[in-house]
Amino acid sequence: MKQQGFSLIIVLLLLTIMVGLATTALHTAGADARLQVGERDRQLAFEAAEAALRDGEAWLRAGAPAAARFDAECSAGLCLPSADGTPQWRRVDWNGTAPIRYGHGEAVFPQAGLLREPRYIIEALPELAAGTPYRITAAGWGRNPASEVRLQSVYLAGGAMPARRLSWRQDH
Q1: Which domain holds residue 134?
Q2: Does the residue 51 lie in any domain?
Q3: Is residue 101 part of a domain?
């Protein structure tokens, strides 16, 4: 009789351990799925920002906007350097109307379901002998606000050589 009671305790202990392991496995699988969804969302945001960056570069390649359209308030997404030296991409309200929407606001970004359409600003930088450099900063979002991605390129246009990208970086 004592041996049967001891066996029951061992079986219950093993059953408890197995339930704990199964619960841990399910929790880990759920966390992995959430990470994959978050990474996919971030990838969508990156692709949207890259498309907006290329849209801005294509606009410059086709012919830079007239210098008179650029202002220090960055009101139409075409920016002159700020008076205090703060880069315009840090000052602009990315949720507002100032940034230029993908397709210059005339085309819809092909990926549906994003939090916001990708957008960009173009900052005119001090002129060089080889042409005018522009800093293009683009923002893209996935399906949630935490997936925002910003990309930048410095693009040289208006010189004797063809317009071209000089540098590229991801802000965050």
Answers
A1: 39-170
A2: yes
A3: yes
Distance CA 113, CA 144 (A): 10
Contacts of 120 (CB under 8 A, 6+ apart): 52, 53, 55, 56, 77, 99, 100, 102, 136, 137, 138, 139
In a domain, 6, yes or no: no
Q: Within a domain: residue 73?
A: yes
DSSP helix/strand/coil, 83: coil
DSSP letter at 18 equals H
Give the pTM: 0.76
Which has the higher per-residue pLDDT, 13 or 128? 128
Phi then psi dihedrals of residue 64, to 5 deg: -60, 145
Number of domains in the chain: 1
Over the stretch 72-103, which tens digit does the pLDDT of each residue have?
A: 888 889 999 888 988 898 989 998 888 998 88
